[in-house]
Amino acid sequence: MNPVSTTFKRPHKSPWGRAWPAASPFTGGLLCVFFFFSLMSVNPEPAHGEHRVFTLTITDAGTGTQREVRTTLDHLQYPQYRYVRPSETIEIKDTWMCYERNDHTGRLCDPPERPVENAPLVGP
User: What is the pLDDT of residue 110?
Assistant: First the structure.
């Protein structure tokens, strides 16, 4: 009877010519450094948090009263997060962009200055 061999030999080699489990050049720290610098080159700036602000006019058809609300929700999203009576309708009165971050904790930015329409021209 032939004795049973207790040693295990892998029948193939790695692409780098070493027997498995050999360390490749892309394992360990070199791979981490490569991914770190590749991710940093994709987006080197911090994230920006701009958002849109809406001024909504909510009109109650039953009482005829109106109220204005300044929010980041549009006329379709607002009833899903805030209570609106079935007799009330919502319209967008104004909208603008805020380009700074507020992380939903600060106050919303003021609307930008708009030129006055039909203003008299000044000059010769």
Answer: 84
